[in-house]
Amino acid sequence: MIKNILFSYFFISLLAISQTIPAHAEDSGVENLRQTGKAFAAVAREVSPSVVFIQVEGKAQQAASSNFGNSFDDDFFKRFFGDKFPGFPSPQQPQGERRISGQGSGFVFQTRDGIFSDKTYILTNNHVVENADSIKVRFKDGREFDAKVTGRDPRSDIAVIEIKASDFKPIKLADSSQLQVGEWVIAIGNPFGLSHTLTVGVVSAKGRTSVGISDYEDFIQTDAAINPGNSGGPLVNLDGEVVGINTAIFSRSGGYMGIGFAIPSNLINNIAHQLIKDGNVTRGYLGVYIQPLTRELSDSFGLKEQQGILVSQISDDSPAAKGGLKQGDVIIEFNGKAVTDVGHFRNAVALVSPGNKVELTVLRSGKQKVLTVKIGTLSKDKMMAKTPAQTTDEIGLTVQTLTPKLARQFNAKSGEGVVVTAVKPGSVAAMAGLDVGTIILQVNQKTVQSASDFQKEVKHSANTKRLLLLIRQNDSQRFISLSW
Fold first, then answer.
1. Pairwise CA distance, residues 272 & 279, whole Å
2. Can you name the CATH fold of 49-84+96-279?
3. Which of 95, 181, 308, 361 could form a disulfide with 333 if both were Cys (CB 3.0 to 4.6 A apart)?
4. What integer pLDDT is reported at residue 93 of this predicted model?
């Protein structure tokens, strides 16, 4: 009898405990969410006072404009939002000089105290302030200041502006190399002019290059909502440290679609200090034309693995030529670090101070060779890494690899196809309707990523004298066949 009573009591106790577990689990889940929300709120309290709303006025020379305020460069927006911005009027204005206004975001990077020289340096995007005649910044507490440009770097889309004040707290920059995909990040800025808006997401990718936004790219990709007006604002981690500058979104509809890009803090730090010190940026120069090493190229060069980048041409009297680099070399390491991407290599060389020596490990005729090269200075008339144009006399066509600069010019995506830069009148290409700005995506149903890829396919067609091209003109794609 006692055993039965004890068993019944034990069974009832287990039943009671089992019924309370879901309630405890539910309470724990809600508490975790509550703590996460408090963490976001704490970051906002810490960082928001150092984030600014930037308003600019200036002049621009363009055929037409939109009232869509954020940047002076309408072409910049068309790459992300198309020709029409939903919900916003787009009145056309005649070509010529016009007064325009724009807006964006920024954040306090550095302050200096002095009896006659109190200054606060604010980081933002170059495209926010590049054509500005007047700049005003407004802090969350309502204080407003006139600002002036300290220095701009269009090639990285970074700018520093300054105000006469020093009582603002700079936001610390994190080491972006330690940032992990999947980490929480918070974007703070002024989308659509809505001051000090906070959005939350995660890092969805790192090291994005060939996006076609700037010449030097190493973007953090995030799904934190970034919209027009967020440009120049900080992307911060849960410690309230800046991991990047919010720069652009990718959108086919005109609105946020879950893909935003931010310039990483390590690149920001290097550029910003140069702009504050000198007003401009000095970059390292190697003097090579480089291209991705495709599987086909790897096989052609007899390489066992598809690694590194290919040197397709050496500039005369360049640091690369003096250092012993040769056409056909495959660069696999830069200062002991593996080279896997053209964009990353371009950035690495650019960040080396001119006069410093670097070690390049190359594959040449199947053997590794270590070269020591003294880096030069990249001037305005030089490019650190280029891809040459290729002319095909058979069809009267000149094409060039889509560099970030060309991609912006022709509203295309860097690394996807080649762009037609010249067409001979009366040629096969001209009669087929190809013109300057046409993007060639495929040749004989093979994707082309560089001018050399295109030239190779033309040579392969020497016997048949026929090419099947997939082209894009005015955002529409079609196949055309060329015969000669």
1. 9
2. Thrombin, subunit H (2.40.10)
3. 361
4. 45
Instruction: Give dist(CA 62, CA 70) in Å, integer.
Output: 16
Instruction: Summarize pLDDT for 139-178 with one digit per residue, the tens.
Output: 999 999 999 999 999 989 999 999 999 889 999 999 999 9
Clarify whether 273 is annotated catalytic.
Answer: no
Q: What's the mean pLDDT when you consider all of the chain?
A: 82
The tokens for 430 are 């001209």
Pairing label, strands 385-386, 288-292 = parallel
Give the integer Cα–Cα distance in Å for 172 and 387: 38
365 is catalytic: no
Prediction pTM value: 0.69
User: What residue has token string 């690149």?
Assistant: 267
Q: Is the distance from CB of 195 to CB of 140 less than 8 angstroms? A: yes
How far apart (Å, rounded) are the C-alpha atoms in residues 345 and 342? 5
Per annotation, catalytic residue among 50, 66, 105, 127? 127
User: Is 141 in the active site?
Assistant: no
CATH of 284-377, one of 3.30.565.10, 3.40.1000.70, 3.30.70.660, 2.30.42.10: 2.30.42.10
Q: State the catalytic residue, choosing from 157, 215, 223, 453.
A: 157
Contact 164, 148 (CB under 8 A): no
The two three-digit tokens of residue 4, written as one number? 């039965």
What pLDDT is stored for residue 253 in this prediction? Answer: 62
Contact 312, 327 (CB under 8 A): yes
